[in-house]
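Exam revision sheet. Question 4 asks you to relate a sequence to its structure. Input first:
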Amino acid sequence: MTFKERIRKSIKYKFRVVFIISIVVGNLISNLIIAPYLKDSIKNILINRYEVIISKLREYKDDEEKLKVLLDIYNDLFYKIQVQDNIYNIPIDKNQMNVLNKDNGIVYLANKKEFNIITKIKNEYYIISVANHHIHLLPIALNIWILLITTLISLSIISFASKKIIDPIEELAEATDKISDGDFNIKIKSKYKIEDELGKLINKFNSMATDLSHLDYMQKDFINNVSHEFKTPISAIKGYLTILKNEHISQEERLEYINIVLDEVNRLSSLSSNILELSKLDNMESFKGNQKFSLDEQIRNTVILLEKEWIKKNINFNLDLKPIYYYGKEEYLKQVWLNIINNAIKFSHDNGVINIYFNKNANEVIVIIEDFGCGMDENTQKYLFNRFYQGDDSRSELGYGLGLSICKKIIELSSGSIEVESELNKYTRFIVKLPF
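Answer key, structure tokens:
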């Protein structure tokens, strides 16, 4: 692409061309509107000046010397005064001739190009006109000068203003190119107020770049975590199978190692299932084939299903579940309650309490599940729904950090939302909102 082509495609060039065209068109329109009024104004001014001249000529009509001096003065100005014995060469009608023959009679002669005046003084005809016969072009000339001046001034202003506006846009374009090349650490220093549209755009861009940087980190971290999570149990399985090849270990030890291998296999199976489930959910836009079911009964059945877990810790449940029939994907929502309630059990203290209750309005049903166990700090809450995020070592021992990511995706596909409120060592509250 040549320099000339680059200039023509430049937004600065287009901005200035559009602005200049707007000025020219605006001036042409204003000329069409103002020109008739300007022409009338010039005509009135000339009439006044002509009448003053005639008044002076009549005043000195008996003094030939002074009259001659006066004629020379006016002719030296931009007026043209002709003195004739007759006016046969001038096209005037009978009525106009009658007017001239009266005392102080004046006849105005006007056409598109000229505006003249005729009067009779002492049997001589005085024809007064403007020396420049192009006086009719004065409105056009005046408008052209105004157009040139306004265009030059406006062009100077628009050049300065466009630089202030276009430069940040060019910075945005360059930054976008860097992001497309994989550099997500780019930041644009905003010179504009946050309330300004351009400032908002730059702030949004910086926010997007930060999010993309986090996403890039999360993707890399996800791959590393998947590799690590698969590698750890596989290494354990390999180690224990090597030990099991030893014929001299006792039967008791052999059974113990076999159980450990089975646990690791189950962990691998669970991890694989969760990854496949997430992949499946990621390729969905919404759930299809929704059915009507009892939401309160589903949650009660989930609590019963987890009875073995909460009996171990002697946990009490307070359930305030009014009958609600919900239209959605039953089997997927069951996964949500299983995961959240199971987490509440895991992180509750022995002899603890878990509360589950509904709130309902015209637009949505709100399911609240809260425990009073170890709680979470702000950083854990911020990244809780990220894949493989486990918060701290105590949490990492109890899972792979995929469960809540699956829950969030299921709820989003149900057009709902999930939030968490927590305070370290005090409580954790999950709030699930589903459209009703």
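Marking note for examiners. The radius of gyration is 47 Å.
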